[in-house]
Task: structure prediction
Amino acid sequence: MYCNHFKLFFAITLFFVSFLGFSQVELKGKVIDSAYVLPVENASVYIKNTTIGTISNSDGRFVLLVPSEHQNDTLVVSSIGFKSFKVLVSDYDNSKDIFLEEDIASLDEIVIVADPRPTTGNGIVLKALERLSKNLPDSAYLQKGFLRHKERNSLEFKWLIESAITVYDSGYGAKSTEHLKVNVDEMRKSYDLRDVDSIFSYVSYRNRNIKRNRLKTQDIRRNDVSKEQLVKSIKWNDTRVNGLQNLFQGKLNLLRNVEDTKALFGKDILKTHQFVMDTLLVDDSRKIYKIKINKSIDFVGLNTKGIYNEGYKAQGWLYIYYDNYAIKKIEYELVAASDAQKSRSKRLLGTQTNHKLIINYIEYNDKMYPNYIYYETPKLVNVGLKTNKKVSQKEIDRYNREERYYSTVQEILFSEIILDREIVQFELNSKLWNMDIFLSKPYNKEFWKNYNVLLESEEDEQLINDLSQRASLYKD
Result:
């Protein structure tokens, strides 16, 4: 047994050492809608028959590192509603933009088959949910991905973490709370300047964990709280609201956790959601339903401990393949709908859209795997200045709208799927499976030279540069 484990360990070590030695081909470009000459965001950019890929950013731009062994493989750039762009990796020209042409399927082209097909949006979605056990992975696998977690107000970034992560999942049929694990493998960037204005997190943390002498935010000033106390409270608040655990094991992992009790897309889905057939589009030569998500008779809620996270209506889109009912993409928003949530969201968050989620899936070996996840939510940092006392202009500025309202964005790009049972089992047993993104890790330059990451938009790149400079000054 020991010998077998040693052989496996040696093989894996040799594999990764060899991988680092591979030469890479850098493909970069900009994806443009040829009709409107506008950038195409979230276009899939990948090597055919592999899991090597990325997506275009809000400027339509992308960068993809491809091992040189795939020089003769095909690069595919696709986006729902457009004709795909395809070219050999060796023939791709980094200096030219990629123009995608619109491609819409006609309902007249559909061939009537013996098996009656649902004709309504509700029917199509219910059929797709019935087929999840066939379309989602049914055995254990690993995914390697890149995480960018950022927090900002309307003026600047306050926090940025970029990490390489590994996700282990035993398959659709098992509970994610017990059989889905996440590990933070490497850290690329970590800047955190939130301690200067996260008093609300401290007050919430203290009131939740220390029952006596409850505090109010207006009674606390920054100088009253140590940095260690703020750090502890910020971590607590991030973990319960925006942690990787919630994103993967919670309700917002809409398809993976559909069989959980009170799942958003569970057995009572039509009580909280209605679905309307919009049109039939094309995705990489395959017909795909575009289904509109509407509100229903009941409000949607997330049942978040310690936070009123109820009273929403759902809106957005589902994209479902016509041939096998596999869900390709989810665009999902929860908007304040109850009187209580409308009032809370306006007063504390400055927005009525409290949760925005995008999940893209990629088909590999006839199963649909998560390819890209985007999650945005407003963040409660402070509750505004409420005092009759004379205060400085600096104190007033601290609570103005631009400084006061925050949002948190998490993006995850998966670039590798591992199905080999021995490797999956080895990593399952050898990793610590710690999803704490606050852990300090040394920067591994060689690792990041060969790892695909999400390309920042031009705006994000500037804000990240500003944040890194301010972080350096802050440390000094």
Summary: Residues 2-103 form a domain with the Immunoglobulin-like fold (CATH 2.60.40.1120). The mean pLDDT is 87. The longest strand covers residues 157-169.
